[in-house]
User: Which sequence fits this backbone?
């Protein structure tokens, strides 16, 4: 839809010279009359009617590739021809209206829309904040136009990354209410509508999900240092009855240099808030951002009320608990990490430094998120972000979606256009979305072919990154060849696209991929397989697992891989090979080894993060850089798929059918957990008792369920208990 189709005769407006303006418009209404508003404030807005905030939504509308803009200031400039969309919010406001005069008020801020300064990936702006609305009611419509009054506002600085500065001595008291004098307000400036596709937002918004009570750690140098006991996303909330006082807050995810390396620290001007108070009873909070943190400092004479945890409304629909402390930590830390990294329906890499929808992180964790959370509309929205970022000419997929800069690689990042629609279909059974994305998948595969020489993917865009894997230990030195990783993933995506073609009955469109797969696999063998030791590039950083998963290698390759990790007893892999290695080991029945790696207590392990105080998953195995990145947590799905044994049979989708076949490994004698599927809950609980194990299973009656153990398959419905004999 166009702006005119959504907003009819309403006009887009701005307040010249302000990136955090206030707007107000008075109108007459009849109490109880049906009223609905469609509104879009770019970047983020807050809407009030008669002083009441409309909805508990925050940070709306959800961020997108809003419209055409100058990409030259990105770290890696691009010339891709993309698509654009803008989401508009629709609210029923019937209950907000009163008889006679009413007042509509809006606050605007930059959000992702107007970024002129940030710490990573270059700056990008779509323009200054702007507003459009139409309030439709029985007694006549109310629209945004030049008669809507505007004010430069009291927020003197707002930056998604750096924070905000508020001067409440500039706050126009009562501007949200009827009878305001209008002091400081003038006519708004009418501007052209951004050229884009306009849609009503269907995906959830950010909200205050829960609150945390901060604990005072120490007081020195006129500041108090607080700890909230976990790394999360949100902000502290303050009150102050003193007028004209400066409250200064700084946020950090780590503060102790004695821990290995350290993450985002307290830094002047970064993740910082400043409030000049007005002596009222208001709560002081940022309006257009959040922070990624565990610790914060504030003036010694100011006390926080609480900490609000803020992220996209994404309910956790799973549980996991066992008698292994490392796996318990992994599940809990992954849940916390992933939630802190979903804002504006964008699965991000971190909640502080980049805050971007990296296609690498998003595709790597996609299946895990869909399995453990209620995130169907979140990932549907993000898939359209990925699609909008696909170059209409070349088929290239950028490294972040919505495109906000950033580096990555052609397959491990761009492959989101294949990987995520397939996992979306497998999780939700949505064939229509898969059908819509199928041509985009083919276009991307042709892009990878165009970046190949002699069957191997060697390059991406000029002057950009061409990563293979990322963040291997111990110091991020990537030894595994980029071309090897990208080409193995290329084959994976071709197999997935062939499967999609079969599901959709579009085999003729993908028939050429079968020949291409064999040609590319042969090229991988020629370039990277050693017939002497039967390894791919020496199995450096998990290389064998990438080839084995696409049907390359032989029995010696499998045995080499098993022997290596039995001897090593810990990870040596980056984000892509870690998921591939654990998945492959479980798939071939090496469940004990997969469990041993996941729960290992050596240096390169999840235990290392846990015993060094982490409450979220680190960007790097040893703690360098960010302490809140979900990517290594992609393996969390295997706790459910194999250790609890909840899997879909081959060819099934949407959890219409389920096989429950838990892997009973040494070192874990008790476990329980559940997932919530499109068809209902599936849960497993077991406990070993000597030579036997009692396994309680439940599957919603709408699911066709089978219990499988020791080569036997037993159909079941609802709740059942099975007693099995353990092997040697």
Assistant:
């Amino acid at each position: 839809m166009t702006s005119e189709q959504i907003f009819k005769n309403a006009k887009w407006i701005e307040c010249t010279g302000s990136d955090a303006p206030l707007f107000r418009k008075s109108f007459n209404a009849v109490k109880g009359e049906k009223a609905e508003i469609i509104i879009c404030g770019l970047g983020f807005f807050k809407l009030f009617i008669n002083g009441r905030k409309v909805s508990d939504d925050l940070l709306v509308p959800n961020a997108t590739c809003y419209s055409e803009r100058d990409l030259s200031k990105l770290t890696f400039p691009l010339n891709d021809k993309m698509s654009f969309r803008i989401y508009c919010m629709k609210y029923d406001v019937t209950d907000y209206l009163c008889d006679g005069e009413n007042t509509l008020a809006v606050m605007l801020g930059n959000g992702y829309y107007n970024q002129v300064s940030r710490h990573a990936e270059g700056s990008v702006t779509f323009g200054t904040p702007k507003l459009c609305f139409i309030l439709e009611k029985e007694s006549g419509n109310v629209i945004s136009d030049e008669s809507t009054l505007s004010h430069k506002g009291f927020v003197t600085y707002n930056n998604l990354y750096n924070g905000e500065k508020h001067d409440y001595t500039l706050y126009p008291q009562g501007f949200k209410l009827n009878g305001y004098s209008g002091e400081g307000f003038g006519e708004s400036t009418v501007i052209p509508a951004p050229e884009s596709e306009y849609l009503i937002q269907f995906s959830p918004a950010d909200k205050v999900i829960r609150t945390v009570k901060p604990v005072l750690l120490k007081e020195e140098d006129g500041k108090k240092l607080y700890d909230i006991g976990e790394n999360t996303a949100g902000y502290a909330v303050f009150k102050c009855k003193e007028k004209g006082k400066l409250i200064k807050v700084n946020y950090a995810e780590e503060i102790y240099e004695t821990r290995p390396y350290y993450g985002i620290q307290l830094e002047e001007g970064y993740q910082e808030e400043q409030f000049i108070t007005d002596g009222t009873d208001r709560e002081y909070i940022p309006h257009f951002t959040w922070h990624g943190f565990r610790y914060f400092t504030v003036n010694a004479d100011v006390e926080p009320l609480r900490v609000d945890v803020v992220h996209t409304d994404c309910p956790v629909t799973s549980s996991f608990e066992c008698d292994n402390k490392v796996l318990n930590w992994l599940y809990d830390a992954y849940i916390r990490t992933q939630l802190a990294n979903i804002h504006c329906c964008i699965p991000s890499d971190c909640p502080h430094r980049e805050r971007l929808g990296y296609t690498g992180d998003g595709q790597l964790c996609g299946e895990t998120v869909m399995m453990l959370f209620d995130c169907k509309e979140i990932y549907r929205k993000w898939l359209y972000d990925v699609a909008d970022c696909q170059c209409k000419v070349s088929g290239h997929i950028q490294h972040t979606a919505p495109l906000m800069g950033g580096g990555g690689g052609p397959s491990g990042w761009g492959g989101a256009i294949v990987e995520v629609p397939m996992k979306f279909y497998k999780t939700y059974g949505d064939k229509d979305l898969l059908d819509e994305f199928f041509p985009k998948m083919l276009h991307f595969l042709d892009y990878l072919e165009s970046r190949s020489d002699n069957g191997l993917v060697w390059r991406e865009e000029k002057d950009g990154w061409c990563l293979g894997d990322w963040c291997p230990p111990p110091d991020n030195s990537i030894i595994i060849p980029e071309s090897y990783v990208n080409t193995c993933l290329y084959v994976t995506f071709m197999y997935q696209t062939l499967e999609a073609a079969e599901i959709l009955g579009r085999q003729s469109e993908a028939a050429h991929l079968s020949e291409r797969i064999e040609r590319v696999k042969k090229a991988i063998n020629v370039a990277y397989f050693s017939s002497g030791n039967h390894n791919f590039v020496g199995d450096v950083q998990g290389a064998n697992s990438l080839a084995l998963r696409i049907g390359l290698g032989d029995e010696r390759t499998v045995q080499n891989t098993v022997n290596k990790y039995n001897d090593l007893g810990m990870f040596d892999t980056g984000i892509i090979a870690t998921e591939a290695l654990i998945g492959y080991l479980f798939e071939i029945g090496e469940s004990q080894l997969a469990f041993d790696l996941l729960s290992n207590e050596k240096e390169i392990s999840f235990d290392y993060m846990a015993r060094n105080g982490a409450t979220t998953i680190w960007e790097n195995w040893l703690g360098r850089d960010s302490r809140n990145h979900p990517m290594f947590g992609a393996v969390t799905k295997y706790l459910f798929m194999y250790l609890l044994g909840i899997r879909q049979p081959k060819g099934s989708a949407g959890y219409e059918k389920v096989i429950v076949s838990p892997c009973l490994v040494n070192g874990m004698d008790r476990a329980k957990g559940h997932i919530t599927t499109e068809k209902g809950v599936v849960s497993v609980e077991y406990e070993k008792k000597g030579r036997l194990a009692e396994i309680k299973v439940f599957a919603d009656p709408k699911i066709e369920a089978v219990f499988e153990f020791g080569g036997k398959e037993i159909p079941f419905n609802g709740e059942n208990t099975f007693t099995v004999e353990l092997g040697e």
In short: The chain has 15 helices and 37 strands. The chain has a mean pLDDT of 96.
